[in-house]
Amino acid sequence: MAEVFDCSDSSQLLSGTRTARHTLGRGELVVIPTDTVYGVAADAFSPEAVQRLLDAKGRGRQSPPPVLIPNSETLAALAAEVTTPLTQLAEAFWPGALTIITQANPSLSWDLGDTGGTVALRIPNHPLALELLRETGPLAVSSANRNGEPAGRTAEAARQMLGDSVAVYLEAGESDGEGLASTIIDATKLTEEGGTLRILRQGAVTREAIAELLPEVAMEA
């Protein structure tokens, strides 16, 4: 039976985050609040946990989950190369609703699915999520819903879809993201001189804001 913690209650917040940390360490799944929608989280370095996440959502390996990280220092550890434009994107929009796909550090021993050697990274702008990430390290996190269903904006909405496939639900009220997921960009072709960038999913961060930040970068459709 899944455990649900009301994180508006300080005592449940403490026990909930502790339980979530131990649960993730065992390779099980936890639903957490983020600044966009609720996410279902797994240990990014446990292939079994990542597969459990994909199974819970009804997705295959061709849909690898993004990875949430606690700080920009982790970006340098997980990305193959951190170019100046990539640094500018991180400084401008993180923590926040921008997911950046970049080439993954080839030395990483993880299996997120069929990534083609890339990784999708984001720092969420939510205190509970950040606190948990600082304790656990990178987490594979995808929107808390079954494939094809709307993303959960509360832990209870997520529980209605995911049930006991998730061990722990951290309820922190309705998400502030107004139902908007993060904007996803393909930054694998960024170079020190600029290069190109492609928006794969329009979300909370607009194309105009990215173009204004990086006028030297060509924006592909």
TrEMBL record:
The lineage of its organism: Bacteria, Bacillati, Actinomycetota, Actinomycetes, Micrococcales. Transmembrane segments: none annotated. It is an enzyme of class 2 (transferase). Its EC number is 2.7.7.87. It comes from the Bacteria. It comes from Leucobacter coleopterorum. The keyword Nucleotide-binding applies. Keywords: ATP-binding, Cytoplasm, Nucleotide-binding, Nucleotidyltransferase, Transferase, tRNA processing. Belongs to the SUA5 family. This is L-threonylcarbamoyladenylate synthase.
